[in-house]
Amino acid sequence: MKELVEIIAKALVENPTEVTVTETVKDDEIVLELKVAPSDMGKVIGKQGRIAKAIRSVVKAAASRDNKKVIVEIQ
Prior knowledge:
By secondary structure, the protein is an alpha+beta fold.
């Protein structure tokens, strides 16, 4: 899951070297924290959060194959 979020985010931003994804496991869910440069934040979130919702939907679909719950946080 971590690699999937990283690939998507790097494709969207102008500074792909500043993209970091950290993965933490809490109980029965996986939390992925996506950090990008402040200038790229708008590109990752999108208008009215559409791109952020799309990223979360793709990750949720990929996680459902493994019967896992994944939360994507954008910081």
